[in-house]
Amino acid sequence: MESIKNNPLVKRIGFNRLVLICVLILMYAAFAIISPTFLSYSRILSALSYAYFLGFLALGVTFVIGTAGIDFSIGPVMFCAALVSGQLLTKSGWPLILCLIVSIVVGLLFGTLNGFLVAYCHVPPFITSLAIMQISKGLGSVFTKAQSVSWPQATQKNGWYRYLVKAKIGGVEIPSGLIILLIVAVICSIILNKTKVGRNILCLGSNKEAVRLSGVNVKKWEMIAYIICGVLAGIAAIFFVGAYTTIQPGLGDQYNNEAIAGCVMGGTSMAGGVASIGGTVIGVMIIALLQEGILAMGFTKDYQLVITSIIVIIAVYADILSRRRKN
To answer: What pLDDT shows up at residue 296?
Structure first.
Protein backbone atom coordinates (compact mmCIF):
# COMPACT_ATOMS: atom_id res chain seq x y z
CA MET A 1 0.00 0.00 0.00
CA GLU A 2 2.81 2.41 0.88
CA SER A 3 4.51 1.72 -2.44
CA ILE A 4 1.29 2.67 -4.25
CA LYS A 5 0.91 5.86 -2.23
CA ASN A 6 4.54 6.81 -2.95
CA ASN A 7 4.12 6.35 -6.71
CA PRO A 8 4.79 9.74 -8.42
CA LEU A 9 1.58 9.55 -10.48
CA VAL A 10 -0.50 8.62 -7.44
CA LYS A 11 1.07 11.46 -5.47
CA ARG A 12 0.24 13.89 -8.26
CA ILE A 13 -3.40 12.81 -8.48
CA GLY A 14 -3.77 12.16 -4.77
CA PHE A 15 -4.42 8.72 -3.28
CA ASN A 16 -7.86 9.64 -1.93
CA ARG A 17 -8.93 11.12 -5.27
CA LEU A 18 -7.69 8.01 -7.07
CA VAL A 19 -9.79 5.82 -4.75
CA LEU A 20 -12.84 8.01 -5.43
CA ILE A 21 -12.32 7.78 -9.19
CA CYS A 22 -12.17 3.97 -8.90
CA VAL A 23 -15.36 3.98 -6.83
CA LEU A 24 -17.05 6.16 -9.48
CA ILE A 25 -16.03 3.78 -12.28
CA LEU A 26 -17.10 0.68 -10.33
CA MET A 27 -20.45 2.25 -9.46
CA TYR A 28 -21.12 3.08 -13.10
CA ALA A 29 -20.18 -0.46 -14.16
CA ALA A 30 -22.43 -1.99 -11.47
CA PHE A 31 -25.44 0.14 -12.42
CA ALA A 32 -24.85 -0.61 -16.12
CA ILE A 33 -24.89 -4.37 -15.42
CA ILE A 34 -28.04 -4.14 -13.29
CA SER A 35 -29.83 -1.80 -15.69
CA PRO A 36 -28.51 -1.81 -19.31
CA THR A 37 -30.45 1.41 -20.03
CA PHE A 38 -27.94 3.13 -17.76
CA LEU A 39 -25.46 3.04 -20.63
CA SER A 40 -27.61 5.37 -22.72
CA TYR A 41 -26.34 8.89 -23.42
CA SER A 42 -29.56 10.40 -22.06
CA ARG A 43 -28.95 8.74 -18.67
CA ILE A 44 -25.44 10.17 -18.54
CA LEU A 45 -26.74 13.66 -19.36
CA SER A 46 -29.44 13.30 -16.71
CA ALA A 47 -26.89 12.35 -14.05
CA LEU A 48 -24.65 15.24 -15.07
CA SER A 49 -27.56 17.72 -14.93
CA TYR A 50 -28.07 16.71 -11.30
CA ALA A 51 -24.36 17.10 -10.62
CA TYR A 52 -24.10 20.72 -11.82
CA PHE A 53 -26.18 22.57 -9.25
CA LEU A 54 -25.12 20.11 -6.54
CA GLY A 55 -21.50 20.73 -7.53
CA PHE A 56 -21.80 24.50 -7.06
CA LEU A 57 -23.42 23.97 -3.65
CA ALA A 58 -20.65 21.57 -2.63
CA LEU A 59 -17.87 23.88 -3.85
CA GLY A 60 -19.32 26.68 -1.73
CA VAL A 61 -19.70 24.63 1.42
CA THR A 62 -16.12 23.36 0.99
CA PHE A 63 -14.89 26.87 1.89
CA VAL A 64 -17.17 27.01 4.93
CA ILE A 65 -16.21 23.57 6.23
CA GLY A 66 -12.58 24.54 5.66
CA THR A 67 -13.03 27.11 8.45
CA ALA A 68 -14.46 24.35 10.72
CA GLY A 69 -17.92 25.83 10.15
CA ILE A 70 -21.06 24.39 8.57
CA ASP A 71 -23.91 25.69 6.43
CA PHE A 72 -27.24 23.87 6.31
CA SER A 73 -28.96 26.70 4.45
CA ILE A 74 -27.40 26.27 1.00
CA GLY A 75 -30.29 24.27 -0.49
CA PRO A 76 -33.09 26.61 0.67
CA VAL A 77 -30.99 29.66 -0.30
CA MET A 78 -30.63 28.16 -3.79
CA PHE A 79 -34.41 27.70 -3.98
CA CYS A 80 -35.07 31.21 -2.66
CA ALA A 81 -32.74 32.70 -5.28
CA ALA A 82 -34.50 30.71 -8.03
CA LEU A 83 -37.95 31.72 -6.76
CA VAL A 84 -37.18 35.43 -6.47
CA SER A 85 -35.42 35.72 -9.83
CA GLY A 86 -37.99 33.47 -11.53
CA GLN A 87 -40.87 35.55 -10.19
CA LEU A 88 -39.25 38.73 -11.49
CA LEU A 89 -38.73 37.09 -14.87
CA THR A 90 -42.15 35.47 -15.38
CA LYS A 91 -44.46 37.84 -13.50
CA SER A 92 -42.73 41.22 -13.56
CA GLY A 93 -41.14 40.95 -17.00
CA TRP A 94 -37.57 41.72 -15.94
CA PRO A 95 -34.82 41.01 -18.52
CA LEU A 96 -33.35 37.50 -18.24
CA ILE A 97 -29.77 38.69 -17.75
CA LEU A 98 -30.86 40.91 -14.86
CA CYS A 99 -32.78 38.02 -13.28
CA LEU A 100 -29.73 35.75 -13.47
CA ILE A 101 -27.73 38.47 -11.71
CA VAL A 102 -30.51 38.80 -9.09
CA SER A 103 -30.18 35.07 -8.38
CA ILE A 104 -26.48 35.49 -7.60
CA VAL A 105 -27.14 38.65 -5.56
CA VAL A 106 -29.74 36.83 -3.43
CA GLY A 107 -27.14 34.16 -2.66
CA LEU A 108 -24.58 36.87 -1.92
CA LEU A 109 -26.90 38.61 0.55
CA PHE A 110 -27.70 35.41 2.43
CA GLY A 111 -24.01 34.45 2.50
CA THR A 112 -23.11 37.89 3.84
CA LEU A 113 -25.77 37.67 6.56
CA ASN A 114 -24.67 34.17 7.45
CA GLY A 115 -21.01 35.17 7.63
CA PHE A 116 -21.72 38.32 9.63
CA LEU A 117 -23.70 36.42 12.27
CA VAL A 118 -21.01 33.74 12.58
CA ALA A 119 -17.88 35.91 12.39
CA TYR A 120 -18.92 39.18 14.03
CA CYS A 121 -21.85 38.20 16.26
CA HIS A 122 -20.27 34.86 17.30
CA VAL A 123 -23.49 32.93 16.75
CA PRO A 124 -22.64 29.21 16.33
CA PRO A 125 -22.62 28.21 12.64
CA PHE A 126 -25.07 25.39 13.29
CA ILE A 127 -27.67 27.76 14.77
CA THR A 128 -27.04 30.47 12.18
CA SER A 129 -27.43 28.18 9.19
CA LEU A 130 -30.64 26.67 10.58
CA ALA A 131 -32.05 30.17 11.07
CA ILE A 132 -31.01 31.28 7.57
CA MET A 133 -32.53 28.09 6.19
CA GLN A 134 -35.94 28.98 7.65
CA ILE A 135 -35.63 32.66 6.66
CA SER A 136 -34.82 31.78 3.04
CA LYS A 137 -37.72 29.33 2.89
CA GLY A 138 -40.09 31.94 4.30
CA LEU A 139 -38.89 34.78 2.06
CA GLY A 140 -39.15 32.66 -1.06
CA SER A 141 -42.68 31.69 -0.16
CA VAL A 142 -43.71 35.26 0.71
CA PHE A 143 -42.20 36.70 -2.46
CA THR A 144 -44.08 34.25 -4.71
CA LYS A 145 -47.23 34.21 -2.51
CA ALA A 146 -46.67 30.50 -1.85
CA GLN A 147 -46.94 29.73 -5.58
CA SER A 148 -44.50 27.63 -7.59
CA VAL A 149 -42.49 29.34 -10.34
CA SER A 150 -41.84 27.80 -13.76
CA TRP A 151 -38.93 29.14 -15.78
CA PRO A 152 -39.20 29.24 -19.62
CA GLN A 153 -38.46 26.16 -21.71
CA ALA A 154 -35.60 26.26 -24.22
CA THR A 155 -37.99 26.83 -27.13
CA GLN A 156 -39.77 29.72 -25.39
CA LYS A 157 -38.77 33.36 -25.10
CA ASN A 158 -35.80 33.82 -22.71
CA GLY A 159 -35.19 30.08 -22.78
CA TRP A 160 -31.60 30.37 -23.97
CA TYR A 161 -30.30 30.17 -20.39
CA ARG A 162 -30.88 26.41 -20.61
CA TYR A 163 -27.91 26.15 -22.95
CA LEU A 164 -25.77 26.80 -19.87
CA VAL A 165 -26.74 23.28 -18.81
CA LYS A 166 -27.13 21.50 -22.16
CA ALA A 167 -26.17 22.98 -25.53
CA LYS A 168 -27.00 21.54 -28.92
CA ILE A 169 -24.33 21.30 -31.60
CA GLY A 170 -25.37 19.67 -34.85
CA GLY A 171 -28.45 18.20 -33.16
CA VAL A 172 -26.36 16.55 -30.44
CA GLU A 173 -26.77 17.62 -26.81
CA ILE A 174 -23.48 18.65 -25.22
CA PRO A 175 -23.07 18.86 -21.40
CA SER A 176 -21.99 22.51 -21.40
CA GLY A 177 -22.75 22.70 -17.68
CA LEU A 178 -19.89 20.28 -17.01
CA ILE A 179 -17.43 22.64 -18.71
CA ILE A 180 -18.67 25.59 -16.64
CA LEU A 181 -18.58 23.56 -13.41
CA LEU A 182 -15.00 22.44 -14.04
CA ILE A 183 -13.91 26.01 -14.86
CA VAL A 184 -15.45 27.29 -11.62
CA ALA A 185 -13.87 24.37 -9.74
CA VAL A 186 -10.42 25.30 -11.10
CA ILE A 187 -10.98 28.91 -10.00
CA CYS A 188 -12.06 27.73 -6.54
CA SER A 189 -9.01 25.47 -6.32
CA ILE A 190 -6.69 28.36 -7.18
CA ILE A 191 -8.39 30.58 -4.59
CA LEU A 192 -8.22 27.90 -1.91
CA ASN A 193 -4.67 26.67 -2.54
CA LYS A 194 -2.78 29.54 -4.17
CA THR A 195 -4.13 32.76 -2.66
CA LYS A 196 -4.10 34.59 0.64
CA VAL A 197 -7.86 34.09 0.92
CA GLY A 198 -7.61 30.31 0.80
CA ARG A 199 -4.59 30.09 3.09
CA ASN A 200 -6.30 32.18 5.76
CA ILE A 201 -9.56 30.23 5.45
CA LEU A 202 -7.80 26.90 5.95
CA CYS A 203 -5.66 28.29 8.75
CA LEU A 204 -8.84 29.32 10.56
CA GLY A 205 -9.97 25.72 10.47
CA SER A 206 -6.63 24.44 11.75
CA ASN A 207 -6.22 26.81 14.69
CA LYS A 208 -8.39 29.91 14.80
CA GLU A 209 -6.92 31.29 18.00
CA ALA A 210 -3.33 30.97 16.78
CA VAL A 211 -4.26 32.80 13.57
CA ARG A 212 -5.93 35.57 15.57
CA LEU A 213 -2.88 35.96 17.83
CA SER A 214 -0.65 36.25 14.75
CA GLY A 215 -2.48 39.46 13.81
CA VAL A 216 -4.78 38.15 11.08
CA ASN A 217 -8.31 39.56 10.91
CA VAL A 218 -10.05 36.22 11.44
CA LYS A 219 -13.54 37.75 11.32
CA LYS A 220 -13.04 39.08 7.80
CA TRP A 221 -11.74 35.82 6.37
CA GLU A 222 -14.38 33.73 8.09
CA MET A 223 -17.08 35.99 6.68
CA ILE A 224 -15.56 35.77 3.19
CA ALA A 225 -15.88 31.95 3.29
CA TYR A 226 -19.64 32.26 3.86
CA ILE A 227 -19.95 34.94 1.18
CA ILE A 228 -18.27 32.65 -1.37
CA CYS A 229 -20.66 29.89 -0.31
CA GLY A 230 -23.66 32.18 -0.78
CA VAL A 231 -22.55 33.35 -4.23
CA LEU A 232 -22.10 29.75 -5.40
CA ALA A 233 -25.57 28.88 -4.04
CA GLY A 234 -26.95 31.70 -6.20
CA ILE A 235 -25.13 30.27 -9.24
CA ALA A 236 -26.44 26.80 -8.35
CA ALA A 237 -29.99 28.19 -8.59
CA ILE A 238 -29.41 29.11 -12.25
CA PHE A 239 -28.26 25.58 -13.06
CA PHE A 240 -31.10 24.00 -11.09
CA VAL A 241 -33.79 25.82 -13.08
CA GLY A 242 -31.83 25.11 -16.24
CA ALA A 243 -32.30 21.41 -15.55
CA TYR A 244 -35.63 21.14 -13.72
CA THR A 245 -37.72 24.24 -14.62
CA THR A 246 -40.27 24.39 -11.76
CA ILE A 247 -39.41 25.61 -8.27
CA GLN A 248 -41.71 25.14 -5.27
CA PRO A 249 -41.49 27.29 -2.11
CA GLY A 250 -40.44 25.78 1.20
CA LEU A 251 -38.09 23.16 -0.24
CA GLY A 252 -34.38 22.78 -0.91
CA ASP A 253 -33.03 21.41 2.38
CA GLN A 254 -32.88 17.91 0.90
CA TYR A 255 -29.83 19.01 -1.08
CA ASN A 256 -27.84 20.10 1.97
CA ASN A 257 -26.82 16.58 2.97
CA GLU A 258 -25.93 15.65 -0.59
CA ALA A 259 -23.66 18.66 -1.08
CA ILE A 260 -21.99 18.14 2.30
CA ALA A 261 -21.65 14.40 1.59
CA GLY A 262 -19.89 15.11 -1.71
CA CYS A 263 -17.62 17.61 0.03
CA VAL A 264 -16.67 15.36 2.96
CA MET A 265 -16.37 12.27 0.78
CA GLY A 266 -13.92 14.20 -1.37
CA GLY A 267 -11.51 14.71 1.51
CA THR A 268 -12.62 17.94 3.20
CA SER A 269 -12.36 17.52 6.96
CA MET A 270 -15.37 18.43 9.10
CA ALA A 271 -12.85 19.54 11.73
CA GLY A 272 -11.59 22.22 9.33
CA GLY A 273 -8.15 23.05 7.99
CA VAL A 274 -8.19 20.48 5.18
CA ALA A 275 -10.16 20.86 1.94
CA SER A 276 -10.02 19.40 -1.56
CA ILE A 277 -11.84 21.04 -4.45
CA GLY A 278 -10.96 18.21 -6.83
CA GLY A 279 -12.18 15.66 -4.30
CA THR A 280 -15.42 17.61 -3.87
CA VAL A 281 -16.13 17.48 -7.61
CA ILE A 282 -15.54 13.71 -7.74
CA GLY A 283 -17.64 13.23 -4.59
CA VAL A 284 -20.51 15.15 -6.18
CA MET A 285 -20.27 12.99 -9.32
CA ILE A 286 -20.60 9.90 -7.12
CA ILE A 287 -23.71 11.33 -5.41
CA ALA A 288 -25.25 12.26 -8.79
CA LEU A 289 -24.46 8.83 -10.23
CA LEU A 290 -25.99 7.19 -7.16
CA GLN A 291 -29.17 9.24 -7.58
CA GLU A 292 -29.52 8.35 -11.25
CA GLY A 293 -28.66 4.70 -10.63
CA ILE A 294 -31.32 4.33 -7.95
CA LEU A 295 -33.93 5.84 -10.26
CA ALA A 296 -32.80 3.58 -13.12
CA MET A 297 -33.30 0.55 -10.87
CA GLY A 298 -36.89 1.61 -10.22
CA PHE A 299 -36.46 2.76 -6.62
CA THR A 300 -37.67 6.08 -5.21
CA LYS A 301 -35.46 8.99 -4.17
CA ASP A 302 -36.03 8.03 -0.52
CA TYR A 303 -33.47 5.26 -0.92
CA GLN A 304 -30.89 7.79 -2.02
CA LEU A 305 -31.53 9.91 1.07
CA VAL A 306 -30.84 6.90 3.28
CA ILE A 307 -27.68 5.91 1.40
CA THR A 308 -26.39 9.51 1.27
CA SER A 309 -26.84 9.91 5.02
CA ILE A 310 -24.92 6.67 5.61
CA ILE A 311 -22.14 7.96 3.32
CA VAL A 312 -21.90 11.16 5.40
CA ILE A 313 -21.54 9.15 8.63
CA ILE A 314 -18.89 6.86 7.12
CA ALA A 315 -16.93 9.77 5.61
CA VAL A 316 -16.93 11.74 8.87
CA TYR A 317 -15.93 8.68 10.89
CA ALA A 318 -13.11 7.93 8.44
CA ASP A 319 -11.89 11.53 8.88
CA ILE A 320 -11.96 11.11 12.67
CA LEU A 321 -9.90 7.91 12.46
CA SER A 322 -7.42 9.56 10.09
CA ARG A 323 -6.91 12.49 12.46
CA ARG A 324 -6.43 10.15 15.40
CA ARG A 325 -3.70 8.27 13.52
CA LYS A 326 -1.94 11.51 12.61
CA ASN A 327 -2.06 12.71 16.20
So the answer is: 76
What pLDDT sits at residue 109?
97
DSSP track, 35-69? -GGGGSHHHHHHHHHHHHHHHHHHHHHHHHHHTT-
Identify which has the larger pLDDT, 282 or 35.
282
The alpha carbon dihedral of 43, 292, 83, 257 has a sign of negative
Q: Which residues, in sequence order, are CB contacts of 14 under 8 Å at separation 6+? A: 267, 276, 278, 279
Cα–Cα distances in angstroms (integers) from residue 183 to residues 176, 178, 230, 276, 281, in the given order? 11, 9, 18, 15, 11
Domains delineated in the chain: 14-320 (1.10.3470)
Q: What amino acid is encoded at 152 in this protein?
A: P
pLDDT at 274 > cutoff 80: yes
Nearest to 99 by CA among 278, 195, 234: 234
- Euclidean distance between CA atoms 63 and 75, whole angstroms: 16
* DSSP-assigned letters across all residues of 85-153: HHHHHHTS---HHHHHHHHHHHHHHHHHHHHHHHHTS---HHHHHHHHHHHHHHHHHHHTTT--EEPPP
- How far apart CA 144 and CA 314 sit, in angstroms, is 39
Return the minimum-mean-pLDDT range out of 226-230, 233-237, 266-270.
Answer: 266-270
**265 CB-near residues (< 8 Å, 6+ apart):** 20, 279, 283, 286, 287, 311, 315
Q: Is the pTM of this model over 0.90?
A: yes
Residue 64 near residue 226, CB atoms below 8 Å: yes
**What type of residue is 39?**
L
Alpha-carbon torsion, ordered 93, 245, 47, 290, to 10 deg: 120
- At 300, the pLDDT band (50, 70, 90 cuts) reads confident
